[in-house]
Write a structure and sequence with these properties.
This protein is of the alpha/beta class. Helix content is about 30%, strand content about 20%. It is built from eight helices and nine strands. A four-stranded antiparallel beta sheet has the order 7-1-8-9, covered by helices on one side. The chain has a three-stranded parallel beta sheet with strand order 4-3-5, with helices on both faces. Strand 3 (about 75-80), helix 3 (about 80-90) and strand 4 (about 95) form a beta-alpha-beta unit. The radius of gyration is 19 Å and the shape is globular.
């Protein structure tokens, strides 16, 4: 087992062993136990009482974080020429079509989100092996395949993220930065949790939210009371 550094030991010492914190307490505490020299990401891991192997228990969705992600999201808009000006005006970092499809075929994936149009999806199919594993394949369910390209780009830039339960039943999401105020961290976390509650599958039995943990880059995890309503 790796030995803890002095700062890591200090962070662990601030956590009460076995205690489950409120979301409000955790949002303040995460700032105290984050000791990185860079602006660390704050993440939430929510274990759900679902079986992701069953299609009717798959939990997937999007949420617009009220205080943004704290990250400058790089957006690629794969659009036809008539939509290029619209995408650029909305803030897309890269705009075009065939030239970027060729770059992706060559292994280029230096973006966070790809927005495209329904008519272009056919061209993206062959790139699934490149985009799929990186979570970059556009999807109508997350609003990244749409004719309203400007709206999609603007929402991503403003803090819209998508999430999906993994095969172990956990939803992982970055909800901000350690430099955020505690109330902004709490606000973003609460928005994600309330969205997850709304997406509870009708076929899910028993306890839906089993556990919630908040952590930042290289920090210990804080257990949060899973009774979120």
């Amino acid at each position: 087992m790796a030995r803890l550094t002095k700062k890591q030991k200090e962070a662990v010492a601030k956590l009460e062993k076995g205690k489950v914190y409120s979301l409000n307490e955790a949002s303040s505490l995460i700032k105290e136990i984050t000791n990185t020299k860079f602006d660390a990401s704050v993440d939430l891991a929510v274990r759900l009482g679902v079986d992701p192997r069953k299609a009717n228990q798959m939990v997937r969705g999007v949420v617009s974080l009220p205080h943004g992600t704290g990250k400058d999201m790089k957006v690629l808009a794969l659009v036809t020429p008539d939509k290029e000006a619209e995408a650029k005006a909305a803030g897309a970092d890269y705009v075009g079509l065939d030239e970027y499809l060729d770059k992706i075929k060559g292994g280029w994936t230096d973006v966070d989100v790809i927005v495209t149009m329904p008519s272009v999806m056919g061209k993206l199919g062959p790139l699934g092996r490149v985009l799929g594993p990186r979570g970059l394949m556009p999807n109508p369910k997350t609003g990244t395949v749409t004719m309203d390209v400007a709206k999609a780009v603007s929402e991503v830039k403003a803090g819209k993220i998508d999430f999906k339960v993994d095969k172990t039943g956990i939803v992982h999401a970055a909800i901000g930065k350690a430099s955020f105020s505690a109330d902004k961290i709490e606000g973003n976390a609460n928005e994600l949790l309330q969205t997850l509650m709304k997406l509870k599958p009708t076929t899910a039995k028993g306890v839906y939210v089993k556990s919630i943990f908040m952590s930042s880059t290289m920090s210990p995890s804080i257990a949060i009371d899973p009774k979120i309503g």
